[in-house]
Amino acid sequence: MKKTKQMIVGSLSALLLLSGCAGGGDSKPAASGANGGAAAPSAAKEAPKEAAKPAEAPKSDVTLTISRWAGPHADDQAELLKEFEKETGIKVKMDAIDFGQLKPKQTLNMSGKTGQYDLIWAQESWIGEYVKSGFLTPLDDLVKEAGSKYDAADLNPSAIKAFTVDNKLYGLPNFEQMPLLVYNKEMLQAEGLQPPQTWDDTLKVAKQFFDKGTGIGIPGKQGSASVSIFTILKRTNGSDYFNASGKLDLATPANIETMQFWKTLASYSMKGSTTWWWDEVTKALQFGQIPLGITQSGLFSQLEDPTKSKVAGKLGYAPLPYKKSPAGLINVWSWCLPQDSKHPKEAFQLAAWLTSKETEKKMSLKNASHISLRQSLFNDQELVSKAPWLPAVGAALKDGITSPLQPNAPKLVEALGNGMSSIITSGADPKEILERVQQDLASQF
């Protein structure tokens, strides 16, 4: 037994000795131990592992065709879609066309059940018509299946409501356009003025600058712009276009008061701005000609581009002036799933990807004019450094309101736009204007 143990110990010693000598060509002498002796032999080196093979890209024979309007925003989105294709193997074809042809082409294809489009980009004002015509698939079950990974609770509730018909969701909101009050911080500070918030604040600031030769800039000529502003202003005063029964109800005391504020504000506007559009207001701000103005978010990037603007970095952004509390306009584009989509599962997968927090942030970093409906991004510091208007958009959308969505809404917008123009150009009485529009259109609502 003793001899056997000696043999085992001798064999182990020999193995350890061999291990210590096997250095893979390393001829360095062994290091000394703590007591000056030879260091303990090192453990045998592991054989090199095979490099992990890169994961194969997903493969799919599905090609999705999506419909949206053309332009720089579409070009930026097309670049991001390459990531989706790489991640999923699904190909995406974008049919990007002129805005004026977008709705007619979508309607033509969905009514004919051609199956041409797997996903369409639509405004909130189109949804009622599309749903009534049976063009769209409800998304509630698909969103529920996506679960917490999609985080639908992060989407702005007012935007979700705008795409909900008969308690069913028909669109994932993707892109907001918002009128805001923009002010030159240096010009206000020079006058000892604080950024205005309420109606009274704004009238005070506008009058002080008007008396010195400038004033506020407003898009007075653009009827739809004026109506968008009125839609927000009346909301801040707790009023609406319709009564509790859903009937048109324009000439209420609160609506008259709101329209009177519009008239007074216009009286303190920069000379000539009653004939301006959004673009002219933006240019006047851009070149430091006015201290404050009301303009549209799609143009804000021009204000912050130092190669184009004299006031980049000097501007502040706020919700439109309010009487009781701030409000904002829901003017949103959303991804919707046509009933005749050939690939509904993959189409929803794409819609969820496009409206995910990660993709939305990438889109906003690529194009600062892209305003997501992800509430968590309104105060994302990386985005705010490029788009300083985002916190104001978030504050306004805490109480979001759409323009009228009824089928005859375009007639109402046109009539109100003409009336608002006459109020600020010829001094028409706000009460009489609202009563006249009410009388002319009440039977159509």
Automatic annotation (TrEMBL):
CDD domains: PBP2_TMBP_like. Residues 1-24 form the signal peptide. Residues 46-58 have a biased composition (Basic and acidic residues). The keyword Membrane does not apply. Keywords: Signal. Pfam families: SBP_bac_1 (PF01547). Residues 27-45 have a biased composition (Low complexity). Residues 25-58 are annotated as: Disordered. It comes from the Bacteria. InterPro entries: Bact_solute-bd_prot1 (IPR050490), SBP (IPR006059). This is Sugar ABC transporter substrate-binding protein. It comes from Paenibacillus thalictri. The lineage of its organism: Bacteria, Bacillati, Bacillota, Bacilli, Bacillales.
